[in-house]
From TrEMBL:
SUPFAM superfamilies assigned: Ribbon-helix-helix (SSF47598)
Protein name: Ribbon-helix-helix protein, CopG family
Source organism: Aromatoleum anaerobium
Domain Ribbon-helix-helix protein CopG: 7-47
InterPro entries in alphabetical order: Arc_rbn_hlx_hlx (IPR013321), CopG (IPR002145), Non-func_TypeII_TA_Antitoxin (IPR052991), Ribbon_hlx_hlx (IPR010985)
Superkingdom per UniProt: Bacteria
Length: 89
């Protein structure tokens, strides 16, 4: 199996967070580095998805695929009533 190139990154983290990392590493019987790689990968995936969804939403706005604010407000106001409105589309 080919060895992946790596780069050492250094970060100062608050002691309570470092202790949680150490606890997680012990519980999972993994290294601290493995835990940090998993956490960083998950965060990057989350941020990339957030960016993708933002670009998608902005494309909808540019294309005029929007819902009127008043329609959304009326729907939200109706949620606490006996006759909620259907979700605006």
């Amino acid at each position: 199996m080919a060895q992946t190139e790596t780069k050492v990154l250094t970060a100062h983290v608050p002691l309570p967070l470092a202790e949680k990392v150490d606890q997680m590493a012990a519980r999972l019987e993994r290294s601290r580095g493995w835990i940090m790689k998993q956490a960083l990968s998950a965060w990057i995936d989350q941020e990339e998805e957030r960016s993708r969804l933002t670009r998608e939403a902005l494309a909808d706005v540019d294309a005029g695929r929007v819902i009127d604010h008043q329609a959304v407000q009326a729907w939200a106001d109706s949620l606490g009533t006996d006759t909620p409105l259907p979700v605006p589309r």
